[in-house]
Design a protein that fits this description.
By secondary structure, the protein is mainly beta. The chain is built from two helices and 29 strands. Bound molecules: calcium ion (2 copies).
Length: 406
Amino acid sequence: MIRRVALLALLAPGLSCGARTGLADQAYEPASLYCTDTVFLGRPDREISLIVGVPRALRSLARWTITEQVAGSTPQIRSDGGERAVFQSDREGRYTVRVTVPAAADRDAGDGGPTAEISCTIAVEVRAAGPVVTCPADITVTPLQPVDLVGRSSGDRTIRSVAWAVDGAPAGSARRPPVPPDAATARFTPDIAGDHRLRFRVIDADGASDECFTIVHAVPREGLRVELSWDPPGTSCPREPGAACDSSDVDLHLLQGVGDPNWRTDNDCYYGNCTNSAGLRWGNTTLDDDPHLDIDDVTGHGPENINIFRPSARYYRLGVHYYSAHGAGPQAATLTIYCNGPTPIARLGPVTVTARSTPEEGDLWMAADVLPLPGGGCRVAPIARGGGPWIVRQTEALTTAGPPAP
Ligand SMILES: [Ca+2]
Ligand SMILES: [Ca+2]
């Protein structure tokens, strides 16, 4: 809204004092000033342009002054006498700026009598802007491939905290946050395949906050990838202590060949032989068809992953062994199987396994036989007995033939 300050009342004394006798034959220009009611918004220590309406004949005569200011502030205003001025202040709050002009252009032509002036005021609100954050673009990597993240933020106030966190993750992920979790620059490692949604959040000294998200797509490239997790995922000890925390140790096994009791031999990829860089040598002389166990999780709930980049065209058998409870009870194990792609071919479980006094007495769940297909993909044949999962004690699996090939 525009407010017109028409000051005929102020003009009257000027007219009556005879100050403009030199221009007696010239029509008087009505002096008027336009000040907006709209509050001008600025930010601390940043210039803001102010404008009012000044009659053309007075445009070099405007006087801009700050009449109300925030305690302790040092506002500044700069003008060349025209209808525009530049304002800046260092503190948040409300300021009043007065613009004053002579009542008419010929004010100095008179007899030294009192000079009539007109003025109006405008309001300026200086307000700090809260943080605005920017996240890195979404990115696609393979599982366990680290991603360097840089979150950016801008704002007027001091930043009190920044944090990276896992906002969403595939089922079975341990949801470990980027490292360090309290810095703008951090590194994240997706522990399993799927979409990991990361949140970057910034809070300033005034409590204002902003957040943004980056999705890390972890897409497996292996011809066969098996992920094992057990309940409840993401509560490994001692990294994330809590009520649900325990250090149960369940192990993933991948057997080449089906039917023979070859568990815990070099026909079985497991923690005892499959984690180091040398690994096992299966198939032909190339490394592509050799198995690898990414992680042996001994203090919580997985995941454990076994991969073969280019598996052979033969059956592999998947086993889950509850090695040691470490004081925890039975665990519900889940397997997720990928073959040449981002989408799981199969999910098996959850199946409850139990640990006993020795690892050899612990449950071994013979979960499924998997046949990689020549054109990519796999055939997954879950193993069942009596309508339920096929579970034996490990000692039995080591000495007797297992279920037959599909
Ligand atoms: Ca383990
Ligand atoms: Ca090989």
